[in-house]
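Tokens in:
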């Protein structure tokens, strides 16, 4: 399955926003949590749109995106 690069970028951005929650509390946590939710919603909307256009399952697309992200993390040249 060929996953568009922009979907991978959106998912990576959502994961980066989620990771920034670590160690925050109070208002800082709330602000960062909203940023994460917005990024995650953007990624999910793009995945749903791609699924509709391509006829592929959104779940399969998401699995492929997560696989691509793991491969990027494991690739020392990446």
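Residues out:
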């Amino acid at each position: 399955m060929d996953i568009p690069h922009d979907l991978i970028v959106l998912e990576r951005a959502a994961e980066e926003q989620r990771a920034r929650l670590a160690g925050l509390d109070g208002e800082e946590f709330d602000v960062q949590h909203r940023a994460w939710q917005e990024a995650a919603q953007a990624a999910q909307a793009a995945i749903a749109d791609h699924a509709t256009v391509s006829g592929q399952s959104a779940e399969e697309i998401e699995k492929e995106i997560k696989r691509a992200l793991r491969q990027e993390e494991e690739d020392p040249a990446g």
